[in-house]
Design goal:
Low-confidence stretches: 87-120
Order of helices and strands: EEEEEEEEHHHHEHHEEEEEEHHEEEEHHH
Radius of gyration: 27 Å
Number of helices: 11
Number of domains: 3
CATH superfamily of the largest domain: Chloramphenicol acetyltransferase-like domain
CATH architecture of the largest domain: 2-Layer Sandwich
CATH class of the largest domain: Alpha Beta
Number of strands: 19
CATH topology of the largest domain: Chloramphenicol Acetyltransferase
Shape: globular
Strand content: 15-25%
Length: 416
């Protein structure tokens, strides 16, 4: 008896998904609960599991857009599991191990080294190798044309004949080729939401800068002990998230939504962290940051970043944030104006930490400085609130001890 595998319901507002890839092929024998396919909705990617054991028969192609409830495959549960040939399992396991090694350790050479070749060396003919060594050519600048990616003499000479000129991947020098690529549901959603944010909010951005030396000193001093105690390192994101949670509690409008003709306030800080993935930008949410420890925030960041990288984020991971932090500094951005992640009302942009001369106590000193940018919806957040919020974040980051008690210890002692 064959059973149908249908697209499961993943949310009230989601009616269509895209079939990213088949993990199992048509004709394969699958075990119950084994992953057979990966799907992508407008919010996240998720997996489809086999409901029974049997022979799989696919009914859709990779890249197809499918409706919720649509049949994508059938499983013949009456089929017997094929017998494994002696040594087949071990050979399969060995192949899988080799594939993992290849993926985990990118190299010009992807097959076993031949006699006389050292593992990891660039594959080239003797003449090509001699020219590369003699002329100081970077092998990465040479486009191999030999079998199995081997560099030939002609490839090196071609690279030398075109100094300073490069070809795009899969293209020749002087190419005028153009390629069309279908937009994924995730990319369509990103595009729609960004345009909607620009068109439906009165967005404005205010800037400030932070001296990151105190935080860098703390990380240097306690990095090893912190990792030994908690299993994670003390990153910049935990300091920023905790600072934002405190500032949001003091400036509640920055943590609010517009809901029709009402303003919906939140008495908690669910902070979305912008994460770049190969399939596009995602913003998973860290819940109740105000209630988490520094280690708790770091562990949540690592967990969400890992899930995003592996395309394991769920709709639950991506919904419900009240405020967003995005860090363009990891890509080298010095300054930017981030776009609000609607329906939220504000987003904080962190940037590259760069040593710059500043005036400190009447002296010019070199300090690791970082620009902060707060984009906000001016319909509900006034200038006083936006600037006050950003100044408070700056104060907390430059005085990390305030993250513990929120007030200056001396002022607290003097009851000021």
């Amino acid at each position: 008896m064959a059973i149908d595998i249908k697209i499961p319901s993943i949310g009230e507002s989601i009616n269509e998904v895209t079939l990213l890839k088949w993990v199992k092929k048509s004709g394969d024998y699958v075990e119950r609960d084994e992953v057979i396919a990966e799907l992508e909705s407008e919010k996240a990617t998720f997996e489809v599991n086999a409901e029974k054991s049997g022979i799989l028969s696919t009914a859709a192609n990779e890249g197809d857009n499918l409706n919720i409830g649509e049949v994508i495959a059938t499983i013949d549960e009456t089929a017997e599991k094929p017998a494994e040939a002696p040594g087949e399992k071990k050979a399969g396991e060995a192949t899988a191990v080799e594939e993992k090694k290849t993926e985990a350790q990118p190299s010009v050479e992807k097959e076993a080294a031949k006699p006389g070749e050292k593992k990891g060396e660039v594959k080239a003919t003797p003449v090509a190798s001699a020219i590369i060594a003699d002329r100081g050519v970077n092998p990465k600048d040479v486009k191999p044309s030999g079998s199995s990616g081997k560099i030939l003499k002609e490839d090196v000479l071609a690279a030398l004949a075109n100094p300073g000129r490069i070809a795009f991947k899969n293209a020749e020098l002087g190419s005028r080729n153009s390629r069309g690529e279908k937009m994924t549901n995730l990319r369509k959603t990103i595009s729609r939401r960004l345009v909607e944010a620009k068109n439906t909010t009165a967005m404005l951005t205010t800037f400030n800068e932070v001296d990151m030396q105190p935080i860098m000193d703390i990380r240097t001093k306690f990095k090893d002990k912190f990792k030994e105690a908690h299993g994670v390192g003390p990153g910049f994101m935990s300091f920023s998230a905790k600072a934002c949670a405190i500032a949001l509690s003091e400036w509640p409008t920055v943590n609010a939504y517009m809901d029709g003709d009402q303003i919906l306030f939140h008495d908690y800080a669910d902070i979305s962290i912008a994460v770049s993935t190969p399939r596009g930008l995602t913003v998973p949410v860290i819940r109740n940051v105000e209630s988490l420890s520094m280690a708790g925030v770091e562990k949540a960041v690592i967990e969400l970043a890992t899930k995003a990288r592996d395309s394991k984020l769920t709709a639950e991971d991506l919904t419900g944030g009240t405020f967003t932090i995005t860090n363009g500094g990891v890509f080298g951005s010095l300054l930017s104006t981030p776009i609000i992640n609607i329906p939220q009302s504000a987003i904080l942009g962190m940037h590259k930490i760069e040593e710059r001369p500043i005036a400190l106590n009447g002296q010019v000193v070199i300090r690791p400085m970082m620009y902060l940018a707060l984009s906000y919806d001016h319909r509900i957040i006034d200038g006083r609130e936006s600037v006050g919020f950003l100044v408070r974040v700056k104060e907390l980051l430059e005085n990390p001890q305030l993250l513990l008690i929120q007030k200056d210890p001396i002022k607290t002692l003097l009851e000021l």
